[in-house]
From TrEMBL:
Pfam family, one: PfkB
Cofactor note: Binds 3 Mg(2+) ions per subunit.
Protein name: Adenosine kinase
Reaction catalysed by this enzyme: adenosine + ATP = AMP + ADP + H(+)
InterPro entries according to UniProt: Adenokinase (IPR001805), Carboh/pur_kinase_PfkB_CS (IPR002173), PfkB_dom (IPR011611), Ribokinase-like (IPR029056)
Pathway: Purine metabolism; AMP biosynthesis via salvage pathway; AMP from adenosine: step 1/1
Quaternary data: Monomer.
UniProt-listed Gene3D superfamilies: 3.30.1110.10, 3.40.1190.20
Length: 345
């Protein structure tokens, strides 16, 4: 790894959540009207779910939130603290202390906005079918309170960063912040990256997503998100390669840099769309007994990718590192890792 990479070159903005992770049965999902392998925002009927998980199941607490996970994984590869900065809103409570401690242990430069209006956000990670499926139910709480004023207060951090990563989940919180950061990236010719993050966002947050897209240099998504995007935007195809190429050709404001679209599909090859063509990158097949938890796979993929990409490595090397990272993470519970990464391109 490059040791001379500077602090603060990468900034991630998202929803800091404490993951409450447990293995449950299908009846538990039915009780709360949840689907396996889905991600939703909690509503009133989900409120008792969190206490039930803590009291009746052997739940693990893990520092979570998609972008925070991605930044932690990027830091793992970079082996130099504070290369990545992370922003999001938390409550003034014990959960935010746990989150901050875990993030700092992983080398992240954490710049939370604090609110006393709401507690720190939590995400139930419900693991079913022998670890193969996970259903996410996020109670954003404090994460919803992020305001663009936090960007103003931390102007120097924005100016110091050369790469930005924001999850689609943040579209539900502060589209104004996304626009402000995206415009800054455009004006300074910096790299702005985003993730589709969940199928429901493509449908219900289509307007802010389409407003952000013209600024996006690198767009990540998985197969179900790409299909949902195609449906919501009337692209007229379910073919993932065609979808990726159509997104590639959508309006882009910064003409100095062509857009890149990357679609992951679990154990199937990763698709890279650039310059009007598609490349495929095989994913090594793990024996089933080694797959413990696929929850952090997408976040880890982007973390591995960005760790290389911010060092001017090729898209090919960056994608291979993303695949390597995701393969490591799914062999553990939660988006966790240990030891030093021994990725070799």
């Amino acid at each position: 790894m490059s040791k001379d990479i500077r602090e603060g070159i990468l900034l991630g903005i998202g929803n800091p959540l404490l993951d409450i992770s447990a293995t449950v049965d299908d009846d538990f999902l039915k009780k709360y009207e949840l689907k396996a392998n889905d991600a939703i925002l909690a509503n009133e009927k989900h409120k008792p779910l969190y206490d039930e998980l803590i009291e009746q199941y052997n739940a693990d607490f893990i520092a979570g939130g998609a972008v925070q996970n991605t930044m932690r994984v990027a830091q793992w590869f970079l082996e130099k603290p504070k290369v990545a900065v992370y922003m999001g809103c938390v409550g003034k409570d014990k959960y935010s202390k746990i989150l901050e401690e875990k993030a700092k242990e992983n080398g992240l430069n954490v710049r939370y906005q604090y609110t006393d209006k709401e507690p720190t956000g939590t995400c139930a990670v419900l693991i079913t079918n022998g670890g193969k499926y996970r259903s996410l139910c996020a109670n954003l709480a404090a994460a919803n309170c992020f305001s663009p004023s936090h960007i103003e207060k931390n102007k120097k951090i924005i100016e110091d960063a050369s790469f930005f990563y924001i999850s689609g989940f943040f579209l539900t919180v502060s589209p104004e912040t996304i626009q402000a950061v995206a415009k800054h990236a455009f004006e300074k010719n910096k790299v702005f990256t985003m993730n589709l993050s969940a199928p429901f966002l493509c449908e219900f947050f289509k307007k802010p997503m389409r407003a952000a897209l013209p600024y996006v240099d690198v767009l990540f998504g998985n197969e179900s998100e790409a299909e949902a995007f195609s449906k919501a935007n009337d692209l007229g195809t379910t073919d993932l390669k065609e979808i990726a190429l159509k997104i590639l050709n959508m309006e882009k404001i910064n003409t100095k840099r062509k857009r890149v679209v990357i679609i992951t599909q679990g154990a199937s090859p990763v698709l890279l769309a650039k310059d009007g063509s598609i490349s495929e990158f095989p994913v090594p097949k793990l024996p089933e007994e080694k797959v413990i938890d696929t929850n952090g796979a997408g976040d880890a993929f982007v973390g591995g990718f960005l760790a290389q990409y911010i060092q001017d490595e090729s898209l090919e090397t960056s994608i291979k590192c993303g695949i390597w990272a995701a393969t490591q993470i799914i062999q553990r519970s939660g988006c966790t890792y240990e030891g030093k990464p021994d990725f070799a391109p």
